[in-house]
Design brief:
The complex is a heterodimer of chains A (about 110) and B (about 110). With about 110 residues, chain A is mainly β. Chain A is built from no helices and 11 strands. Chain B contains no helices and 9 strands. Classes of the chains: A mainly beta (about 110), B mainly beta (about 110).
Chain lengths: ~110, ~110
């Protein structure tokens, strides 16, 4: 089974802090994604990565950056956390060239105070 | 991607088959039907996908009509753990794409 893990299930940070969210997948998938999910707004894509060291902006990249130094790991960085970044953050991975099936991690519920 | 229409909510008794419908009348020839679900406070979970033939895996069966304008996800023996929001989406296979979920169907399995 594909396994996607995220570093924390719940996280509380203060405004202005730098926040790191890590995602690891164990199926050698090329593509990885970071989404956030908010009530009434659905899933929104922040960044995605086709492969190692590659990254593309999604729909809402402002205030975020990413790092993909190894194939299995995709990190989301909030440079200076703000209260409007309080959300559920979801990581997903996909095998390139196959059906567009994305496998999600359990999510990190981030609260910024 | 073609638009999909699902009922907002459904109920099913535990142990019975849950049949979740989805309309996708504007689907094009190269688009697949995918089903995901999201249990409360968890990440979305892939269930099954198909192009035109019926598909079955360990989780569910997918029945696609001959004209491909609608489909039904079948959970053959629903359990309480199947209570979730179920999303039907239609998309083609082409590179890494973001997933966009509609409102989905909130399925409640009753004891």
């Amino acid at each position: 089974d594909v396994k996607v893990t995220q570093s924390s299930r719940y996280l509380v940070k203060r405004t202005g802090e730098k926040v790191f969210l890590e995602c690891v997948q164990d199926m050698d998938h090329e593509n990885m994604f970071w989404y956030r999910q908010d009530p009434g707004l659905g899933l929104r894509l922040i960044y995605f990565s086709y492969d190692v060291k590659m990254k593309e902006k999604g729909d809402i990249p402002e205030g975020y950056s990413v790092s993909r130094e190894k194939k299995e790991r995709f990190s989301l960085i909030l440079e200076s956390a703000s209260t409007n970044q309080t959300s559920m953050y979801l990581c997903a991975s996909r095998k390139a060239g196959e059906a567009d099936t994305q496998y999600f991690g359990p999510g990190t519920r981030l609260t910024v105070l | 991607d073609a638009k999909t229409t699902q009922p907002p909510s459904m109920d099913c008794a535990e142990g019975r088959a849950a049949n979740l419908p989805c309309n996708h009348s504007t689907i094009s020839g190269n688009e697949y039907v995918y089903w995901y679900r999201q249990i409360h406070s968890q990440g979305p979970q892939y269930i099954i996908h198909g192009l035109k033939n019926n598909e079955t895996n360990e989780m569910a069966s997918l029945i696609i009509t001959e004209d491909r304008k609608s489909s039904t996800l079948i959970l053959p023996h629903a359990t309480l753990r199947d209570t979730a929001v179920y999303y039907c989406i239609v998309r083609s296979i082409q590179g890494a794409q973001k997933l966009v979920f509609g409102q989905g169907t909130r399925l409640t399995i009753n004891p």
